[in-house]
Amino acid sequence: MWRIYHYPRDNPYNFVKKMKRKRKTSKKARIVFIGDSLTHGNLSVNYIKMIAKKLGKNYDYINAGMNAELAYNVLLRLESIIACKPDFITILIGTNDANAELKDIQDKKSIKMLNLPRKPDKKWYIKNLEKIISELKEKTDAKIAICSIPIIGEEISGKAFKQSIDYSKTICEIANKHEINYLPINEKMIGYLKQYPSNPKYLHEKRLVEEAVFKHFLYRKSFDKISEEFGFSLLIDHVHINTEGVKIIADLIIDFILRK
Questions:
Q1: For the segment 59-93, what is each residue's pLDDT rounded down to a tens digit?
Q2: Topology classification of domain 2-186+241-258
Q3: Which residues lie across from 143 on neighbouring strands?
Q4: What is residue 149's DSSP assignment?
Q5: Residue 122 burial (CB < 10 Å; 0-12/13-18/19+)?
Q6: How many angstroms separate the CA atoms of 17 and 190, rounded?
Q7: Distance (Å, rounded) from C-alpha 206 to C-alpha 229?
Q8: For the segment 153-179, what is each residue's pLDDT rounded down to a tens digit?
Q9: I need a labelling partner for 228 at 20 to 30 A (CA). Which of 43, 70, 77, 84 fits?
């Protein structure tokens, strides 16, 4: 269980400690990736590693992703992110907020596990997300991009899938309001599914996360193999993302980083 919920090795706290130990300041541009388990990268294929492989050693890659977190939790740990003095920031948060509205059981579980002060809903998500953006704009000089959330499930007519679209439209509106870059992950994934339809074996109502974790960590199956067994094109377990899905995220972020 520790392997699932520990901080990434290259997290903001470790980065700041490393910088304090060094006498010379790194001349590399710093990228902080803010998010949940999709960014942490131990329950999904790791998009940060894919980006680092393509962009090379001219950047410091700082993983500010933490499993199961909501926008509220990110807001509480912004100080460590700001302390990194990033040149670029990407924000990919909201999947757990969107999911929390779908099942009351998940609400209660999230509230207890993450010490949330209230039941999550969309209004609270918007409030927290706008606070995150405002604080990052005020306290850093970073170029900021916010991502729409990935699809939830691959059943296009499903409630969870539509929820991901609804949240993504809101994220786009917030990006425009705060005049920051918007990366259309949700839209790109929907376009991919229209071109390459999938045939999921299970509806979103069946939780597959625990089964996928079991298959990966105990039986050493790759995330892509698990994805294939469940009949997905981009996802692993309705939420987490396989290599094809991660390519979409990585390409959008790389384009943002390299954009003049």
A1: 999 999 999 999 999 999 999 999 999 999 999 99
A2: Rossmann fold (3.40.50)
A3: 88
A4: P
A5: middle
A6: 40
A7: 15
A8: 999 999 999 999 999 999 999 999 999
A9: 70
